[in-house]
Amino acid sequence: MKLVGLTGGIASGKSTVSRRLEERGAVHIDADLLAREVVEPGTPALAEIQKRFGDGVISPDGRLDRAALGSIVFADPEALSALNGIVHPAVRQRTGELIAEAGERDPDAIVVYNVPLLVEAQVPHPFDLIVVTHAPRDVRIDRLVRLRGSSEQDARRRVDAQASDEERLARADIVIDTAGSIAHTVQQADVLADKLGLPQRDRGSVSAP
Predict the structure, then answer these.
(1) Which terminus, N or C, of the chain has the lesser number of Cβ atoms within 10 Å?
(2) How many domains does the chain have?
(3) Four-CA torsion 13, 15, 20, 22, nearest 10 degrees
(4) pTM to 2 decimal places
């Protein structure tokens, strides 16, 4: 089994690259989906979040109110650090389980772990290769505003709350330039797939249910 860590700043094209690698036959594990799974109602992580941030971050149906929590943590580095200290360990544990399952099913599997906060969370998994999707800060802010409906102020906060480009690039074995068209990004993903020896077939996705 080969484990590939895929990371990059918010709105830097990670999903485009991971989808292409999955189409080429990689097993895809999505940290964002797992981060949602580990804070579902009844989970220990959600109980910890409620204790730390109060009942205001819990919606009437008992689920996490992400907007309310986001308004707190993206404006307060200490609060963001506290949240990460709750969620990251739970995600690491679940990820380890999924990686082990993928290896048991296919010892030759290429597993792509799409993890936006690989640098910030100091993800400990034994990666064989780290791939960074990279687009300039202003491009990512524009995408958040134009494509995801964020305010410019919120977009800047979200981008600046993450690791710097320099910190991410320092960890990269391969950099995929995502500042241009989607087609250009996909083309680079195909080059990576070829290097990994991925066939033209679909091996499916491993993610939170």
Answers:
(1) C
(2) 1
(3) 150
(4) 0.83
95 labeled part of a ligand binding site: no
Tell whether 195 is in a known binding site: no
Is residue 13 part of an annotated ligand binding site? yes
Q: Is 11 annotated to bind ligand?
A: yes
Averaged over 147-167, what is the pLDDT? Answer: 90
Based on the number of CB atoms within 10 Å of its own CB, is 183 exposed (0-12), middle (13-18) or buried (19 or more)? exposed
Q: Where are the alpha helices (DSSP H) in the chain?
A: 14-23, 31-37, 44-53, 66-73, 77-105, 137-148, 152-160, 165-170, 182-196
Residues 137/186, Cβ–Cβ less than 8 Å: no
Please tell me whether 183 is known to bind a ligand: no
The answer to the question of residue 205 being in a domain is no
pLDDT digits (tens, 9 = 90+) for 79-95: 999 998 999 899 999 99
Answer yes or no: is 82 a known binding residue.
Answer: no
